[in-house]
Fold this protein.
Amino acid sequence: MECGGLAPLWPSMKTSSQKEYQSGARPPHSKEVLTPIVRYLALVAALLFALAPVYWMLTISFKTEGEHFANPPLWFAFTPTLEHYYDAFITRAFGQYLLTSAIVAVTSTALALVIGTLAAYALARFELPFKLNRRLSLWILSTRMFPAIVTAVPLFLMMRDVQLLNTRAALIIVYTAFNLPFVVWMMRGFFADLPRDLEEAALVDGDSRLGALVRVVLPLVTPGLAATAVFCLIVSWNEFLFALVLTQTDAAMTLPVGIAGRVTQYEIKWGVMSAAASVAIVPILVFALALQKYLVRGLSMGAVKG
Amino acid sequence: MGIEFRNVTKTFGGAHVVDDLSLEVRDGELIVLLGPSGCGKTTTLRMLAGLESVTSGDIFIDGERINDVPTQHRDLAMVFQSYALYPHMTIAENIGYPLRVRKLDKAERATRVQRVAEMLEIESLLERKPRQLSGGERQRVALARAIVREPRAYLMDEPLSNLDARLRVQMRGELKRLQHQLGTTTIYVTHDQAEAMTLASRVAVMKKGRLQQFDTPLNIYNAPANRFVAEFVGSPSMNFIPSERGTMGIRPEHIQVLTTPQDGALEARVYVTELMGNETFVFLTVGDNRMIARAPAEFRAEVETKVWLKLATEKIHWFDPATGNRLQDLQD
């Protein structure tokens, strides 16, 4: 199975520089020593560039307010404090936002995966009349072709009419809908790559279509399922626009909206915002690390000849 | 269980892949569907399995029309050409899958898997995954998965074609023995005429979706219904010589090659000889025609030497030059 589509999300650690490094059994030529060094320097520079804001955010979350604006900036030497974390999660409602974010992200991801996977399977395997397989797939994709903000006002009005404003349900529905096209297209590709023989064997063995899907097909596309899940979760977790438009109360607000809310007319609570944002990173990081083995592992199709 | 195809037709985008096929399989028979690739034999098998819809006509199992019965309710077992083992399951789980689907309890499942594994001598592989197995072992597992329950019939789609020649001959024998033991109706698809001849109780020869002949291997060999069947069955192929009475056909094994002239023998020249070890194929030119004869292994002849052919006249077949059909009244 090809997981090539995931490469941009999950750069594998086996880069060409590593291969070259391993091939250095002979006495190294000066050029062969230099090339990896240059590469590693470039890597370090890229890492610094990417991680510096994260580091800065982390330090701010542990600094006192006075130290935030010290000039020259305090990169390493400061007295760590937990006051902002206390402020955010005990005094203010950030714990509540975190919970809402988690519920909304997990539920919408699960829903999108279930609905999207079933749709993708049908589109990949059943032959529909009037070339509907292709047409439906393209139509589903087209729902992602306009900017999200175009749907913000209609969605607000619709949610108001069904009295779902300021509810988690509203966000779950919108995120599920938003993630569906992605799930359908990703999973359709994974299903199409699987040999039909396996499902046919399951059917002949007496299993139902759904049974074959659950017992035979899905275990074989676990890496794809995992990658899709990570993507959906990140999108839902970080989503800001719809959450801002559809929720205004502490009870229904997600973390991104809650954090942005600390930018007020009179002050910007850098410490609280950084503390909340630092915590917000953790779940996604843990989830992605937990699923990494599925993402990296290519599944061998040992049963079918080859 | 008896199986019947009645006027079954399958079209793909206007092309007749299977054309008006009628075939009756008796209980316990091993029927081989034989033909070149694209002759519709696999499609026929897949229609019986329910993996392909029937365009027109009816299929019966035990008198029950099954056209609209979904695959999983047809109670058949199939061995795929690719084996189609479930890669994420162990061999034991693979073999036990049909039982698991039928909700047999674990202990019963384990006993039956063990019994089948012993029968096919794969007990030592039960904990492995399919990718750790050789082609021959995978083939046995696929077979084990089919026979672990008692289906109404076994369907086999070129089950031996991915094995090397030696293993194929060995498995062929084992398959025959197994079918004899189990006595279950079996439909077997192959393009290999040797497999068909050795395994089948009856062979159905197909060409371009149409049934050419349906008979015992011996009758197919001795009295081919048309030129296509005559040519397809037997190796090397039957020789055909045009004559004013019709097209004469004679198999290479019914031609005796003599190095000295004899009464009534046909004069020919050696084109080339091929020593096969146990016999020699002699390629000949007779007038404008090419022929092949099978001679004993000791037979030696230089290229372009003159030889004389003695045809076993009672083994000569006659075919209509236009239609290719067997000319019954000209035989003997």
